[in-house]
Amino acid sequence: MEHVRLLHGKAAEQIMFCFFTHGYLTVTEIESLLYRNQKNTQENQSIRGILERLYHSDFISVADTSQKPSNHVNDKLQLHVSFPECLEKTLWTVDFQNMNRSVCELECVKLVTRTLRDTDARILQYVHRHERALRGSNTSVLASSLSTHFLETDGLSHAEVTQSLESLKMRSYLAGAPGDQGSGGVHLNTELVTNTTHHQIVYTIVKQRFGETACRLFRLLLNSPQLEQKQISELAMIPLKDCREILGKLLKHEYVRLQEVARTTDHAPSRTNYLWKVHLPSVIVRIQLELQATYQNLESRLHEELRKENASSCASVFHACVDPRDQSETLSSAKRGLRTSVEKLELSLLRLDKMMIVFSS
Questions:
Q1: Apex CA 303: angle with CA 299 and CA 305, to 5°?
Q2: Nearest CA to 131 among 77, 186, 176?
Q3: What values do phi and psi take at 254, rounded to 5?
């Protein structure tokens, strides 16, 4: 819901909430839920405009009530042409698969922009936001429109915008749009943005769990072909004993893989090569499982803390009724401690949720 509000505003968030609570809705039913049958032409037109934006952003789709398979792309192109006419009798629902992909993409862009200069970050966010709005019409974001927008809003000159665009293109975050040769059109390299975000988060997790040296070994194995332990020790410039210990920990938690290549048929250890490597998709699956387990654990703890908080509140009310003159500082202190624990758990769950979204694509 937070991402819907950021992309399309508070009214779109309210409409999406209606879909989450009711499943399938027509425009008339949405109007009834939001405005309780109060007829307002301006508000009704606003709903139609928001639905069209949500549709072209892949947050909602037309409910398929028939048993025949349909071509989603062709249906979408046809609907785009006759959107106002077919709106009244259309049954809409949430397109969870495309919505999750869209939210994941937005979260990845936000994380990548934290590593960029302020101007580069704003331009990348602008391109992404307008690509979402123009999705389905095959229209790229023109460099001229970027210059005009940032000159009016931030006072950036054409040279500054051009320099940022070149920097983003050099890092491959932006690329020329297909079919727009010579027009200066650019589009977001979504695959690179997603991969960069995955790498950043995985590096952070490895560093926090196993230390800086383990993160260096992990990066080395991720960016290199299969290596033997001695090669890893030399390239990472750490003692062989420490290298063996760190690789053992990473192997135990399934962050690296070990492959045995026997030089003879008897598979003798002295005549076998032991090659280490990182398979990133498997590491991401492992991290997803760990995040889910952590989320469930924190959620259980949160429910327990909320139960204790409710019990403490009831005890405070009872104590005040029995002896109104006694302020019961002990109970008040306990309530504040419980409230602090609840807030910390809620914040941790929110952070975990954002991280799980990034790996949902």
A1: 115
A2: 186
A3: 65, 35
Length of the chain: 361
SS3 277: strand
Say whether 272 sits in a helix, a strand or coil: strand
CATH of range 99-188; options 3.40.50, 1.20.910, 3.20.20, 1.10.10: 1.10.10
What span, in angstroms and rounded, lies between the C-alpha atoms of 248 and 82? Answer: 61
List CB contacts of 146: < 8 A, sequence separation 6 or more: 123, 126, 127, 161, 165, 186
At 91 the three-state DSSP class reads: coil
Asked if the model's pLDDT at residue 73 lies above 50, the reply is: no
Residue with tokens 């940022």: 164
pLDDT at 27: 83
Matching fold, domains 2-94 and 99-188? yes
Domain ranges for the chain: 2-94, 99-188, 194-278, 283-358
Query: 2-94: which CATH topology?
Result: Arc Repressor Mutant, subunit A (1.10.10)
Q: What is the DSSP letter of 140?
A: P
- The residue behind tokens 């934290």 is 114
Average pLDDT, the chain: 80
